[in-house]
């Protein structure tokens, strides 16, 4: 990766008004594209060394998490910030104030019972160094004329726009997340993804409304640009200080390749946990995946619908160890099952279980299922989740499938378990006869066609890869597995 292409800090935003506020600070911008389509601009902040990348992802925690994944694969940044606007939950916060998140709550996790909601909070603390730099920047900020106040509060993030102080969600936040000073829609996904990628993260928000039923009026009065500008100004001050600090450059970063196509080859993790500061020597050609045909393909524990519930069409991935690998002790399985459950979004209320051969965490409800993770004692690692769908059935979107397979690979590979030298990946789509090849951008649809006749589209475990390639070249592996599945659908 050349110096021109690299970025030590990545700033993510959701809305155009947020992106423009950050972009105004960045000079000498150069466009960079992730192979999955996410667009970044890379440039400099005048007067400081080190380049930053910026991106606008759209609303929601899922897009934020995928944005982190793409940023890490493309740049291997030392820090990621999410900068934008938010609604105030505390009465002392005024429109235009800046909130730095000391922690982020994924507030939608919980269990609904006859006694009410039992909260199951998922919280991520801000990175210590970035938070310290933000506190120092706040001291300097107060000396500026007409500078907006900077507050350090928890932030609540979910996939709901809150515009009321009396609705059940508002009461839930007061009861269970009383220290949350602001609410928005992206930071939970971003913080979770940064946590599992082991990238320091910080959230900076400008208050644009009070989440009190007056949002439309306040937005029409033009407060969003002011709030976004205040957040961007403060975030850039933190980034300037951060870039002036000495930081060790990751060993895997220098000169891997000068092309966008090769950069994904040195990508680091996403949703699930990664290899942290352990750096493994990459092959001379980062894209030369070392596939080897197996003389005797191993059996694959394809997911079977053993119950009689109505389920969505599912995408499944299995990593079958090739060669010797230490067996997992039975006594470790319960703890492993709890670990697997913790890797699934808390709002889905995953159920963990074990038997004498495996640990698993499963979501079976119609809203989120079928979804789960499984690890067997002999080292097989499996993950599955529903394909995007509407009332006309499921769709196979190449980009979506590639992104989800990459995330699943990283979750499975980061588990603290005995590891084989090589794995044979296998992928499948169950209920394939209900699937059409399409784009998630077309959902919901008014018509669909091209249904197949087979119930399961399978790519068996006939070829293996080194575990290091699966870990270091995750995006390329996911793209190849997607292509093999797509070939099955397109020839039907």
TrEMBL record:
It comes from the Bacteria. This is 5'-methylthioadenosine/S-adenosylhomocysteine nucleosidase. GO terms for cellular component: cytosol. Residues 8-240 form the Nucleoside phosphorylase domain. One of its GO terms (biological process) is nucleoside metabolic process. It holds the Pfam family PNP_UDP_1. Signal peptide: none annotated. SUPFAM superfamilies: Purine and uridine phosphorylases. Transmembrane segments: none annotated. One of its GO terms (molecular function) is methylthioadenosine nucleosidase activity.
């Amino acid at each position: 990766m050349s110096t021109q292409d690299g970025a030590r800090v990545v700033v993510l935003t959701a809305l155009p008004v947020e992106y423009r506020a950050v972009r105004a600070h960045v000079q000498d911008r150069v466009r960079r594209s992730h192979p999955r389509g996410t667009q970044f601009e890379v440039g400099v902040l005048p007067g400081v060394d080190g380049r930053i990348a910026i991106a606008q992802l759209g609303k929601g925690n899922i897009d934020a998490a995928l944005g982190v994944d793409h940023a890490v694969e493309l740049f291997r940044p030392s820090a990621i910030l999410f900068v934008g606007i938010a609604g105030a939950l505390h009465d002392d916060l005024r429109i235009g104030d800046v909130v730095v998140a000391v922690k982020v709550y994924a507030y939608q996790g919980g269990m609904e019972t006859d006694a009410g909601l039992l909260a199951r909070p998922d919280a991520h603390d801000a990175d210590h160094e970035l938070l310290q730099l933000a506190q120092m920047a706040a001291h300097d900020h107060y000396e500026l004329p007409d500078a907006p106040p900077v507050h350090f509060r928890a932030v609540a993030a979910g996939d709901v726009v809150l515009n009321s102080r009396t609705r059940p969600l508002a009461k839930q936040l007061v009861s269970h997340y009383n220290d949350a000073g602001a609410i928005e829609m992206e930071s939970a996904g971003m913080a979770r993804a940064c946590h599992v990628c082991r990238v320091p993260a910080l959230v900076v928000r400008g208050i644009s409304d009070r989440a009190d039923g007056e949002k439309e009026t306040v937005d029409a009065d033009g407060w969003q640009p002011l709030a976004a500008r205040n957040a961007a100004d403060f975030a850039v001050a933190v980034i300037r200080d951060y870039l002036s600090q000495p930081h060790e450059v990751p060993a895997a970063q220098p000169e891997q390749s000068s092309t966008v196509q090769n950069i994904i080859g040195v990508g680091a993790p996403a949703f699930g946990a990664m290899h942290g500061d352990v750096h493994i020597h990459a092959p001379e050609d980062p894209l030369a995946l070392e596939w080897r045909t197996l003389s005797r393909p191993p059996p694959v524990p394809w997911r079977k619908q053993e119950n009689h519930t109505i389920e969505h069409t599912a995408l499944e991935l299995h990593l079958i160890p090739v060669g010797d690998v230490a067996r997992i002790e039975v006594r470790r399985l319960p703890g492993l099952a709890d670990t697997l459950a913790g890797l699934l979004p808390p709002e889905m209320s995953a159920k963990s279980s074990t038997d004498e051969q495996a640990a698993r965490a499963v979501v079976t409800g119609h809203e989120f299922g079928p979804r789960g993770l499984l690890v067997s004692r002999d080292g097989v690692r499996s993950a599955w989740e529903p394909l995007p769908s509407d009332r006309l059935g499921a769709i196979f979107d190449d980009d979506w499938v590639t992104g989800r397979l990459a995330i699943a690979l990283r979750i499975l590979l980061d588990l603290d378990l005995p590891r084989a030298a090589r794995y044979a990946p296998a992928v499948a789509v169950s209920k394939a006869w209900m699937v059409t090849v399409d784009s998630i951008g077309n959902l919901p649809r008014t018509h669909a066609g091209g249904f197949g006749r087979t119930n399961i589209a399978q790519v068996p475990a006939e070829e293996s890869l080194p575990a290091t390639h699966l870990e270091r070249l995750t995006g390329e592996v996911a793209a190849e597995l997607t292509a093999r599945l797509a070939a099955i659908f397109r020839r039907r």
